[in-house]
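Give me the fold.
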Amino acid sequence: MTETTPSTAGAAAKDLQEAGAVLAEEAARFASFGWMRGTSGNLSLVLTREPLRLAVTASGRDKGELTSSDVVLTDGEGAAVGPGRPSAEAALHARVVRLTGAGAVVHVHTVASVVMGQRSPEGIPFEGLEMLKGLGHPTHEVSVTLPVIANSQDMTELGDRLEAALSPGMPAVVVAGHGIYVWGADPREARHRAEVVEWLLELELARG
């Protein structure tokens, strides 16, 4: 067992606060797009892998007004480790990290994702689009599908659905009637991918 000393505890608190500052900045950006209205949406950032620890935005906070303190340390199952209450969906963030090896996860509530998830419950295909390069594809000459899964308040059940639906070349999943989860190696990559996925959804929405 690793002993927690005042020095290591202080370092962990500093890491958490620094992560909180990063997530607050990311949340403010998404809120400015109208993707995190009110207290909706949540973000996470991996702090350590062994053991798995995540910084997750705190529950019930206005995402456009977060500070570096509005973040909670959670374990590899999404349960709080220390003070504060993380988003109710922290367990799903942790599940995504365990499944994909991601370093950061974004969950936003966009109109396009809700509408398209309802229109295309079997998944949303994309092909021949330059924006697909923003998801890591070397060329636009690819075909990928954005999975859509049914919503659930049970994070274990929702995580099982997400695991079953994961699609190669698509680091995102739409939760029908709810929003999108997108992940990346770090907050910057997760943000870029979220913006690309939302653009693709808006394109499909405009096509009718």
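Helices lie at 6-32, 90-100, 111-119, 155-165, 187-207.
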